[in-house]
Amino acid sequence: MRREQSQRFTERLQQAALLLLEMQIYRKPDDLARRFGLPVPVVRYWWRNSEQEIKEVDPTSATAKQTKQIRKAQQTLEEWEKIKRYRPQCNARLANGKQCKNSVAIRPPEAWSQGCLAERCRIHGGLSKRLIVKKVRQEQDET
Ligand SMILES: [Zn+2]
What we know:
Layout: H1 3-22, H2 29-36, H3 40-48, H4 64-85, H5 129-142
Helix pairs in contact: 1-4, 2-3
The chain binds zinc ion (ZN).
């Protein structure tokens, strides 16, 4: 998965999580993380670094717009389980001319600012910081 794609997807997860926490659909970051299978430290970090502006919404008396927002945010977060299970493949070129079919690596919580999914599998340096930096430089040179 390309870096920008991964970052964009991660930002969508973050926005959805913050919306549900602000509306108090989930009272604690930990509850939300467990419900959607997200890493607890990541959700805690998102919440800590947000405005933490609580606009409590009672689900039984929510407006149509709020109900829609809540549903959309929940759907976005449910995608994480799916994407986690069916990650894109690494596609690194192998010595035999074929492409690596392993799933790309899931980054550890502290690296989610670069996107939750790495570009490559573990074997092909998906979690290596040096490779990522080199790649970015190459892309910049090309443009
Ligand atoms: Zn690979």
